[in-house]
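Module 6 notes. Inverse folding takes a fixed backbone as the condition and produces residue identities as the prediction. Think of it as a translation problem where the source language is geometry and the target language is the twenty amino acids. Below is one complete input and output pair. Work through it position by position during the lab.
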């Protein structure tokens, strides 16, 4: 697994009276990659004590949480038993239930989470849309789920007006996917198709240059078959799909506000800030500096021929 500690992020959100009136509100979001052998939890002293997972004593939350493992393996334990966690596992944790989980030291893992509370969540539990006795789901490595978690983090970082309501609107989307998989006999939400495997590979190499030889070798496919497959599923070549993923990540990095356009360009392994700026504007309609609100007098867009 790549060392992605520079991509780790978590935050615990303040809750206003108005947020509670919305009846569903977000308490915490996070994305953490634990490399093999690293201590867990990540930065344990920066989490509120009630959130820290301890394998010896477990923990009891006073909120609901989705915890999604996209890479690595580990263990989960509750009073209903112990289970292995594999990539694509979703934990749905409920208030008042003691539980334990941790990554295997020889694999580490990448986890995403969203914590939430409110009258809607309690009603979902009462009506069995959330099953207190079923903590583990297996939606698989799903780009749509990853997009939801990443969008929640991007919103929390950007703090737009009504940020709480925007983030909390993502929670029913996750639950609906899990509930549909539970309710429909013979239905599998697992997205373990070739396309999902390819997309996950691209995600893991988002900060690298496009290496078609490594991609085709890892996926055990020749380039022409790979190109045909992507054209059928996305209308784009693998290379242009990869570029679109880079632009989406660039949006997140620019919104954080702690990196310049040039720094984002180099981090995402573009050939030059000039090329990055041209591509960004072509894909989004605005320049990178307009996207993050920087001083337009220093905009790389000025380099571009009108």
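Target side of the pair, the amino acids:
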């Amino acid at each position: 697994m790549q060392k992605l500690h520079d991509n780790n992020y978590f935050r615990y959100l303040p809750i206003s009276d108005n947020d509670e009136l919305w009846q569903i509100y977000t308490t915490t979001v996070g994305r953490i990659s634990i490399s093999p052998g690293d201590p867990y939890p990540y930065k344990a002293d920066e989490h509120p004590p009630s959130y820290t997972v301890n394998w010896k004593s477990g923990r009891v939350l006073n909120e609901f949480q989705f915890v999604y493992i996209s890479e690595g393996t580990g263990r989960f334990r509750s009073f209903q038993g112990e289970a292995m966690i594999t990539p694509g596992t979703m934990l749905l944790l409920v208030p008042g239930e003691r539980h334990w989980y941790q990554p295997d030291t020889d694999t580490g893992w990448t986890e995403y989470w969203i914590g939430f509370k409110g009258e809607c969540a309690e009603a979902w539990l009462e009506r069995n849309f959330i099953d207190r006795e079923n903590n583990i789901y297996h939606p698989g490595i799903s780009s749509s789920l990853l997009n939801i978690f990443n969008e929640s983090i991007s919103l929390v970082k950007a703090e737009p007006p009504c940020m709480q309501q925007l983030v909390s609107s993502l929670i029913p989307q996750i639950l609906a996917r899990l509930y549909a998989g539970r309710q429909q006999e013979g239905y599998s939400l697992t997205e373990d198709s070739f396309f999902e495997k390819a997309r996950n590979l691209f995600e893991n190499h988002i900060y690298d240059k496009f290496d078609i030889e490594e991609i085709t070798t890892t996926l055990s496919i020749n380039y022409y078959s790979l190109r045909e497959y992507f054209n059928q599923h996305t209308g784009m070549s693998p290379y242009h799909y990869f570029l679109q993923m880079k632009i989406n990540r660039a949006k997140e990095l620019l919104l954080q506000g702690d990196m310049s356009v040039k720094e984002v360009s180099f981090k995402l392994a573009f050939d030059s800030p000039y090329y990055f700026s041209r591509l960004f504007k072509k894909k989004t309609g605005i320049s990178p500096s307009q996207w993050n609100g920087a001083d337009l007098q220093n905009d790389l867009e000025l380099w571009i021929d009108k």
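Reference fact for the lab report: Residues 238-256 form the longest helix (19 residues).
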